[in-house]
Write a structure and sequence with these properties.
Elements: E1 19-23, E2 26-33, E3 36-43, H1 49-52, H2 54-57, E4 66-72, E5 74-79, E6 84-87, E7 92-95, E8 99-104, E9 109-113
Antiparallel strand pairs: 1-2, 2-3, 3-9, 4-7, 4-9, 5-6, 5-8
Length: 128
């Protein structure tokens, strides 16, 4: 995922992302560092993957795997097998393909994702 033998140090900031993708009740900010793409997802209260991003992805559930750090807010995840859990600030989660997620409460859920965001909220490769 990360380039171990990077030729030079790099520092990027989400305040000046390389790309921003907006979708209903949320946005994704992407930075490219050392050959990797890191995404910060901001999901406003009322956001849910199945209503906000599914129309863009056109898949039954989110097919993008995620390896993410939860900065703030609460994100509830329901896997396709029916298991359901909350991800809270300070948590690190690994979510395989096949899930739905939504913001719980009145605070935005903010996550930093180290995997799975390159095609997120696009119609490319049908990823969710």
């Amino acid at each position: 995922m990360l380039v171990e033998n990077a030729a030079k140090a790099e520092v990027k900031a989400f305040t000046t992302p390389d790309e921003v993708r907006e979708f209903p009740k949320g946005r994704l900010e992407l930075v490219k560092v050392g050959g990797a793409t890191v995404g910060r997802g901001i999901f406003e209260p009322g956001w849910r993957w199945s209503t906000s991003v599914q129309p863009l992805a056109n898949t039954p559930s989110c097919e993008a795997p995620h390896f993410q750090y939860h900065v703030s807010g609460v994100l509830r995840v329901r896997m396709d097998d029916g298991s359901e859990f909350d991800c809270k600030p300070g948590d690190v989660s690994l979510l395989p393909s096949g899930h739905d997620a939504w913001t719980v409460g009145d605070e935005p859920a903010v996550v930093v994702d180290f995997q799975g965001m390159i095609d997120y909220a696009t119609s490319r490769h049908s990823h969710g």
